[in-house]
UniProtKB/TrEMBL annotation:
Source organism per UniProt: Candidatus Dojkabacteria bacterium
Key word Transmembrane present: yes
Membrane-crossing residue ranges in chain numbering: 12-33, 39-57, 64-81, 101-120, 188-207, 227-245
Pfam families noted in UniProt: DUF817 (PF05675)
InterPro entries: DUF817
Residues annotated as signal peptide: none
Protein known as: DUF817 family protein
Sorted UniProt keywords: Membrane, Transmembrane, Transmembrane helix
Amino acid sequence: MIKELALFTIKQAKSCIFPVSIFSVLFISNFWVPNFLHRYDFILLCLVIIQTIFILLKQETKQELLVIFSFHFFGLFFEIFKVNQGVWSYPEDAIFKIFQVPVYSGFMYAAVATYVIHAWKNLKLQLLNWPQTKYVLVVSSIIYLNFFTNHYIYDFRWVIIVAIIFLFKKTSFNFQVSEKVRNISASLSFLLISFFIWMAENISTLLKAWQYPHQSDAWSVVDIRIISSWFLLVIFVVTLTITLSQKYKEHRIE
């Protein structure tokens, strides 16, 4: 069991190479940035180079790259809206900044998609009892829409979460660390990923990747209730990744 846990940790670490690269760049940029670059632009340059290396090493297929870059778009649009609503901010200057949001922020969302793609390969994931595509797309659309409408009308996140638990109540993932095939419920896997992203968010804000209003004077822990937002975002990422990629559909078991 200890050996399998160690192997599981190694495979998870391999799946997190791109997110870890982002943390490394954020850490370095707190201590050194070329004099001719703003910090946010330096981060963007480094992440573009890292992503290019991934492409040259063929770490993702063309279809997977399409999924990853789609999350750059969804993420950047999401960031522009939230920042201009005052939910969080990027207080430093940058040349590559759109409506107060540095372009590098899209990589944060692409990193989640990258993790999903590599974890799928490394853990040999298989879908069991995945809901019909039309229902999944409706839920995903409502999730994304609610992130915007909750500023103007009621926040339906808890209603959506209840609906998600019902929709995915029979859904699970088979995964393989060594020879034995293990299983985990979809909702639990989404929650666990959300928790670790929340931890990563605390590290990111500590490294001044962005800041919430309560962190403007001094850093403090991100509200644990944000996990509910990450839970919904993880489902959006996973469901869209599965929907856009035929390969993952082929891994489905009814």
